Amino acid sequence: EASDPKEDGTTQGVPWLQDCVLSLSPCSDLLVIAREHKAAFLSAKWQTDDSGREEMTLAVSWSGTLSSEEGSSTGRPDWTCIVVGFSSGYVRFYTENGVLLLAQLLNEDPVLRLKCRTYEIPRHPGVTEQHEELSILYPTALVTIDGFSLFQSLRACRNQVARAAAAGSDVVQPPPLAYKKWGLQDMDIIVDHSSVGIMTLNVFDQMKNASILGGFHASVKGSPPAMSQYMTVGGGPFTGFYYAVEGSSQPLLSHVALAVASKLTSALFSAASGWLGWKNKNEEEPGQKQKPKVEPATPLPVRFGLPDSRRHGESICLSPCNTMAGVTDDFGRVTLLDVARGIAIRMWKGYRDAQLGWVQVSEARGEREIATSPSMPRRHAQFLVIYAPRRGILEVWGTQHGPRVGAFTVGKHCRLLYPGYRLMGVNSVTSQGWHLHTQQVCLFDPTTGVLRSITIPFHLALRYTRLFHCFMFFVVWLTALLESEAQSILLEIKHPAIKKQALESMLTSKNAPVACMTNVTRALLASLKEQDPEAVDESLLQLCSSQLRLLQLYTDVQLLHTPDSSPTETESLSVAGIEEDLARVGPILQRYAELNSRPSVSFAQDPGGPLPVRAFLSQLVFEGGELRVVRGPDTDWTHLGSFLFWGCLSGQSPLERVCETLQQSGISPQQLLSLLLTVWLNREKEILKRADAIRNLHTLLNTLSSMKGALDESWDVQCISPWWQQVRNACVQSESAGAALLAGLVAHRAAKSSITSLAESKVSVCVCVCFQADWEFVSLELEQWVVCVRQLEDVLALQTLLSLPPPQGSPGGAVPRCSVKSLLESGRGGVADSVAKLIFRQDAAPEMLQDIVQRRVAEQNSEEPVEELLQLAEAEKDGIQRLEGNYGRFPHSLAPDVLWAHCCWEYVVQWNKDPEAIKCRILHFKSLFSSLSPSGISSMMWNTFIVKRFSAAAFLMEKVGKAPKDRLCRRDVGMGDAAMTSFLGSCVQLLQTLMEADSGVEEVSVPELCMEEVWGSAEGLASIAELALQQKAVHYPLVQHHCLLASLLHAAMSFSLRLKPLSLFDSKGKNAFFRDLTSIQLLPSGDVDPNLVAIRQEFLMQVLTGWVKAVGEAEDSGSAKTGGQVDWLAVCMELASLLQVSADILRRHLVWELYNQGLDLRAEEVMLEVEDKDVLGSQLLVLTGQRLAFSLLHSQTQTKATMELLARLPPTLCTWLKAMDPSELQCPSVSLQQSSRLVCRVIEMLPENHAQYSIALHLLEAVDSLQEHK
């Protein structure tokens, strides 16, 4: 089925395949995708994936499948023909290789639909045999082509093409086609059709129609005429029924076929794209001189229809047996029509843009008794498949009035592909012995490219299915009152598959009581045993037997856990040796319980209360006659374990009777042990609150160990026991540190008792160790337990530390959990990494950590136990002091150098996530390193996190030529301007740390990183400390080169200066930036271009100016901040030496700026280091003149004495003062004492033969006179 689509464009978000025409072959091995003037053919090929599994992929399409004359024993197609209709009215026939076989113009309107009807074997005598036919729908006409003649013509064309291709000659023109053309009348719009086939009226209908049409005197023929029935959908009326009497119109011999069909040319596929290009409508047959003649259509009025003026049909789908048809309309309804009677028998609503398909299923031979009538034909059932794309659901309905038997959630852009026909070229003779392929309904998902077929079992159409639904109604409301009704309905069902499905549905019901389930299952089992063993379904019998045993087990365990069944063990039994262990770990265990006893969030969906019977049955299965527990999700596993053992652990159920019941059930001791440990470890909060839980656990472990199959009888005490290894595995994998430690202590004592008794019974020679006249057996198993218990104690201490609440005001989060397994898998730095994360969350200062370490080092000789340290830490206010308690357990893993390295790394990792919210405190740790050189960790931080943002800042400033604004900083560097200034300062400190570490690397010996003995088997990634020691040494000049750039950037950002930082360096210097610090680069050397030096000098002078201004503003406001606590004078002097700038020029400029700012005392200090006094004196003389000019000429409070003094001044000095501009002074209002002191300094610096020496003397006299008048 293919036609030229009319849609223009696609909807946004909808796959492009929605605008394509898709057609699938009945064998589902060929698929065609067509759109506008192109098409792709997809054929089926078997492929094998990487895992060795075979799967089918598609690669060819068609609209009609053809077979050879002789047929095939398998009924598979011999070759495939694709029929394509065009908007120009042409219909063309192609092979699967794209070779054009035949083309013919049947009507000048666009082709709307192409449908095919193939041969069907009559299932009953008297049914009219239907012939093959191809029908082509136009807007006002319907063309039908006889299938037999079409098959013969296409086969001849294909053979001719093959011979011509082999001989290299021209192809003979094809023979004409015979067809019928009907002009469908009395309908306004026709969009789809179905050709039902030839039908014959019965006598009653014939007489009824004759009397209605001809009246009372109408004559009736002896035999009813044969008619071809056609159904159309559209508008006005909604559905139309047409009948064409056979023999009323002669077939139209296509005498223009020879002129229409051009020479058979081959339009092969392009190997690159796989697309076949069609010709445009205005380019059809360019060599044709005149348009072919189109025969007129024979009028065919509508016999009757379903009138509905507002409803418009969209599509019609005929059932395989031609008795029913599904119609979709624009109201979102799906209507089921009775084809013979022409009435609507069913309607579904809520299926807008629905797509329909039919599935016909035959009954299997073994599904019903056929012994009485072996020749009885098999029954068939029909199901209507509805795909609703708006809802993304695929539904299967039984017809005519059957229920919905299936519903599937699929995508919203799928396509339902239903060919509606079988192989062509088959008749009553050639179909003998054929296995015709069943018509399939497939769903194509364009988003994934998956083609799914729909298979429906036959029994869903039987009456037992209705009984099944009735039974399910009783199951939903199953009580003791409805138990007999549900039982009778279940026994009435005869089909084994439906009966099994009904039983499984009852057992999985959440409302059915367990007593009713047991009674119904027992009745069904008894009914099956009364029947003939050969006629009973074996799987159903086994299901009833196994489920009945499980229901009885559920009932017995439930009765044992009821309050009436009080435990028989009333005496208090103590566990030998456990008191000493509890006394040792008691304080830390108590603190752990307090930290983990905070209320947590719970949801209504969380499992609570008793275990439902359906959950119990879903987790236990019988395999080979043995009961096995199926491991499901952790919550279900814990719920099952709680149902079996929680009553025993809490002391509310008899332990021995429960264990005896479980042992008789056949569950293996290993699975019971797994369930017990799961309950113990997952219900930690409740366990820690019960004092008797430890004793009950010890009793349960001993009871389970004594079961048959728990401990191997041939087990040697010098080998590891799989039974106790299972306990250790559960403890080391659990993140419940407290419960795991208690389980380990109890299991250790139980294993020790078992090994001792076993060794004594075998009278084996063992290595013994004497302790206070007591003999203790030593074995590999006990050594494993000693190591495990020590690891669990360490994990408990570490978990207690990690459970500390964060400081008030900090964002909360889930408490990190650890286990023995996670620590072993995290490598040698797992403990330090966990503690470093805690230090970051606690926002601990490095000084406090250093104090803890120093105190711990001082106490190393006094082996203070962990409990005393914990008590000491509890007395202190800050919770981070609890870290002291872990140094005793992890002396090597938490060594100061290792911990500092991990802290630095954790801080820089968190800073990289949010550079503005988190302060970059990594550099504060550099003073804490002792033996572990900071060079490695600093180099790692630089290469991993710092250099990327540092280079971005440099390039940004080079681009804008000044300190960038906040928006640009956030865009390119990922932080604001304030954070970027702090970041650049940190970069300077980090690079200085690298240089200091590199200069002193020979003085520090490389430390040896060790691990605790019990944690020596840790495997995983290398720790940060190990990676730091593995780093290569940095190249000092290259680090200094980067530090120089960082200082320039920091200065520009601190004082908002204009700067292109990379322009201050030559080509060698630019190329060396942002390289690996361990590499050797070609750096600048020798003399530098004077112009470049001038630029550098100007920038450093701007830095000093900005710093002096910041100092002046700070002193005016009384603040201590002077340029971010950076000694910019020292920085500039150091930069001057590296940039080959004269330091004396910078000092002179600084002195002038300090006097200009009014900071005379600071200026006098710097003045002592100036070498060129003459130049400085001349500069300061001008500044003194500006101060005096401001006091005499520009002051707002000029007095009479001042005016008289100005008149007595020498004319030369007066003229010189008037030429001064006091507006250049940053602080013009200074005391006369400061100005007098400055003039004296100037006179001291200027030689007597200096040109301005006399002016300096006059200035001194003027200032002194002004002081006297003041």
Provide an overview of this structure:
- This is RAB3 GTPase activating protein subunit 2 (non-catalytic).
- One of its GO terms (cellular component) is cytoplasm.
- It is found in: Cytoplasm.
- By secondary structure, the chain is α+β, with helices and mostly antiparallel strands.
- The longest helix has 28 residues.
- It is built from 39 helices and 35 strands.
- The strands form ten sheets. Strands 10, 11, 12, 13, 17 and 19 form a six-stranded mixed β-sheet that branches.
- A hairpin with a 5-residue loop joins strand 21 and strand 22.
- The radius of gyration is 49 Å and the shape is flat.
- The N terminus is likely disordered.
Contiguous runs where pLDDT drops below 50 for at least 5 residues: 1-12, 59-75, 250-289, 367-374, 564-573, 603-607, 763-774, 861-881, 927-931
Rounded Rg: 49 Å
Number of strands: 35
The major pleated sheet works out as: 6 strands, mixed
N-end to C-end Cα span: 114 Å
Rounded mean pLDDT score: 78
Briefly note the structural class of the backbone.
Answer: alpha+beta
Q: Helicity range of the residues?
A: 40-55%
In one word, what is the shape? Answer: flat
Strand fraction: 5-15%
User: Helical segment tally?
Assistant: 39
Main location: cytoplasm
Domain Rab3GAP regulatory subunit C-terminal: 671-1247
Region (Disordered): 280-301
InterPro entries: Rab3GAP2, RAB3GAP2_C, RAB3GAP_N
